[in-house]
From TrEMBL:
Name this polypeptide is given: Cysteine protease
One GO CC annotation: plasma membrane
Residue ranges constituting the Peptidase C1A papain C-terminal domain according to the UniProt record: 117-332
Any Pfam family matching the protein: Peptidase_C1
């Protein structure tokens, strides 16, 4: 039984039992079952009680919606059922359209570039869509939308489907984008163009947090693009033409509570057009006379229809449901990808000792100025601390062993500087043991 049907079965059984037992007792049993299903544990009984109260509130919301019986979509107690709506919005969004005028290098879509548009399209069936990914509590939805679009056009042009690195964008694309604090797909496309390519997910895996840019990975230009195109705002016809040609990145409003608890069906709102989330349109279709977009999200497979949502298409609003017609773009590609660079191999400490690729050799013990024992720091071009136990990132090169942190400069620092150094060091993987 898959997660979707399991979630519905649990909810259905609970509804049946509410008639015969006390709601609080039954909901408590459901919460325990839900925790086991999703592998949830809590640090204390107080925390568990708080999450149970949140779960109860979400259950009431889901039940009220589903009991109406006249909606085109259903809600369920999915993986986010123990989060308040505020917590969910704070951790799962990350689209920043307000700064979209900083960069204007993209072409505007030609209204006549597609002649024949099929009645339905699903790029998953064409092998142009990678598996559903999970951004976690990092607001990097923009990077997942961008890589998804690049993965799609790369498959269409070259015949090869490569899962690309969101982490490289989160760590290294800093001209306008802000990692886990939000960003925009056009800026990500421009970064890939300027860098002459993007690395793979396998080589630069996602961490769910910002770290120091692995500059050696920037040279792993596995997939390239030549440019990007912006779909004219509020023009659903042109958006449809674009999706008929390739997967397309879009901004939407994903902060509604119904969106948080969505499970299946054609989502019709309610939602505003205040864009705060980035997703990928991978196709379109119709069901019982109702048109919809096929949208790939980045919240894992325990949300929606195994990570996907069907969103109403051809609504009466020119901005589209949840603003889906307002800010769409896609990468363009005609050039082949470069040949893969040779692997740099392990890092050599001495004639007998090696560390892994992108690691730093640190001397753990020395005698008469000669290192007799090496350890490996899991940071590239790191600074080895004099305590022979820790290392710091190259951009925070001062080891403060008293406060167990890495600093940008030596000497006394203010309290605020120390806090900021600790935060930055943590983001970049600093103060690591070896």
């Amino acid at each position: 039984m898959n997660l979707l049907s399991s979630s519905f079965l649990i909810t259905f059984l609970l509804f049946q039992r509410l008639t015969f037992s006390s709601p609080s007792h039954t909901t408590s049993e459901l919460f325990d079952t839900w925790c086991k299903q999703h592998g949830k544990t809590y640090s204390s009984e107080a925390e568990k009680l708080f999450r149970f109260r949140v779960f109860e509130d979400n259950f009431d919301f889901v039940k009220q919606h589903n009991d109406m019986g006249n909606s085109s979509y259903a809600l369920s107690l999915n993986a986010f059922a123990d989060l308040t709506h505020h917590e969910f919005k704070a951790s799962r969004l990350g689209f920043s359209p307000a700064s979209s005028m900083k960069l204007n290098h993209g072409k505007v879509q030609d209204p006549g570039f597609v002649r024949d548009i099929p009645s339905e399209m699903d790029w998953r069936k064409e092998g142009a869509v990678t598996q559903v990914k999970d951004q976690g509590s990092c607001g990097a939805c923009w990077s997942f939308s961008a890589t998804g679009a690049i993965e799609g056009i790369n498959k269409i042009v070259t015949g090869s489907l490569e899962s690309l690195s969101e982490q490289e964008l989160v760590d290294c694309d800093k001209s306008y984008n802000s990692g886990c604090e939000g960003g925009l797909m056009d800026y990500a496309y421009q970064f890939v163009i300027d860098n002459h390519g993007l690395d793979t997910e396998d080589d630069y895996p996602y961490q769910g947090r910002e770290r120091s840019c692995k500059k050696d990975k920037l040279k792993r230009r596995v997939v390239t693009i030549d440019g990007y195109t912006d779909v004219p705002s509020t023009n659903e016809k042109l958006l449809l033409q674009a999706v008929a040609t390739q997967p397309v990145s879009v901004g939407i409003c994903g902060s509604e509570r119904e969106f948080q608890m969505y499970s299946k069906g054609i989502f019709t709102g309610p939602c505003s057009t205040s864009l705060d989330h980035a997703v990928l349109i991978v196709g379109y279709g119709s069901e019982n006379g109702v048109d919809y977009w096929i949208v790939k999200n980045s919240w894992g497979t325990r949300w929606g229809m195994n990570g996907y949502i069907h969103m109403l298409r051809n609504s009466e609003n020119s901005q589209g449901l949840c603003g889906i017609n307002m800010l769409a773009s896609y990468p363009t590609k005609t050039s082949p990808n470069p040949p893969p660079p040779p692997s740099p191999g392990p890092t050599k400490c001495d004639i007998f000792t090696f560390c892994g690729e992108s690691e730093t050799c640190c001397c753990a013990r020395h005698l008469l100025g000669i290192c007799i024992s090496w350890k490996c720091c899991e940071l590239n071009s790191a600074v080895c601390c004099k305590d022979h136990t820790h290392c710091c990132p190259h951009d925070y090169p001062v080891c403060d062993t008293k406060r167990s942190q890495c600093l940008k400069r030596a000497g006394n620092v203010t309290r605020m500087e120390a806090v900021e150094s600790r935060r930055s060091s943590a983001k970049s993987g600093g103060w690591s043991s070896f």
